[in-house]
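Much of what follows relies on a compact textual record of a protein's fold. With that in mind, consider the following protein and its fold in token form.
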Amino acid sequence: MEKTESTIGNVSHGVGSSAIQRRSVVKGLGALAASAGLGGLSKAWAADKDTIRIGYISPVTGPFAPFAEADNFTIDSVKEAVSSGLAIGGKHYNVEILARDDQTSSDRASNLAAQLITRDKVDLILAQGALTVVNVAQQCELNGVPCITTMTPWQAWMFPLKGSPQKGFKFVHHFFWGIEDIGSVYLDIWRDLPTNKVVGTVWSNDVPGNAFGDPKLGLPAAFSAAGYRIVDVGRFQSGADDFSTHIQAFKKEGVEIVTGLFNPPEWVTFWTQSEQMGFHPKIATVAKALLFPGGVAALGDRADGMSTEIWWTPGYPFKSSLTGQTAAQVAEAYTAATNKVWTQPIGVVHALWELGIHALKASSDPKNPQAVSAAIAQTATETVIGKIDWASSPIKNVAKMRIVGGQWRLNPTTHKVELFITNDSTAPEIPVQRKFEMLS
């Protein structure tokens, strides 16, 4: 029977103190085993060899908590799926899950990963979160522990780790979309719409905002190559409450399409000021701020017609390889268990666990880190978010997930906005649910 530690409230004590405690414990066990004829210690070692330990790190609290809102629900689903253990290579293994909250802190994520590796002796680490995955992967690569991460563009994972698409890594693997994929989705949404092709861009002055807004490697280059004229008056600081400079420039330049990277409160401020200043674009396609129902709900009816990229919805036509549930059934189960509306990260985190369990089973020896890492690199399997394929990826250690375009539309019966898939040229296997319509 697997044992799961709480995701919330696990405090990092640091690698140094853990090492001292570990030496004390080992010394004590040695004395105990000597007096007991080694019988008790031998049983402990045997139990350790028969148990697979999976570490999991995510931002359950802190600014990025919405991305981990469903973690406890997902872990409970995984626990149920592996409650009888796993049969791998002709041997039966129990499964132990050790979940940790990094509190949206990269330093804490690093410390937690080190603890899981040196103190808890995990066989695999899974992690998600923009401020989590780089430091966790760094610890895993350094210590030779297999690792799968997600929930940040692959460029923001690979390059801070000093990797390259040609070289890659030995033990760490990542799946998600890239900035180029967001560009393709946005262009798919805008392509056949009657606009003047003038785009106003608003990027946050932080790591993701600067990556998205980079004039050569980010979205502006893709938009310009497709024939769009860019109006960009500079970055805004996180938490900004005045976008009048951007709005004035957009009005002057005749901007009909607005895009950018916002936190939900920032987008509410931008849109409110746009209305006050008489700026009415035909299209608003925004990253991050429009991912979560809570952020959209703050706009009320004004969110009707706003568009964004879609990572996953209950409308995806895929099943979980771990639980057998369809995408719709996963979302329904979440709502039934929590009384909350589904969110896009639910599917991605569920797929993370699918991929971890798949790799352990495919390795033939889950206690061999080289075998598990090799199994990840050879993975090409269907998940609740679609096919994840490291085996044939042109980017070493990276598998790209498919994303499509979507639009929030007001339900006249419930007076709530709902997210629909409207554009799927980037992933034709995902069916369109509704035709895209410009803002009224």
Residues 1-46 have pLDDT under 50 and may be disordered. Residues 15-35 form the longest helix (21 residues).
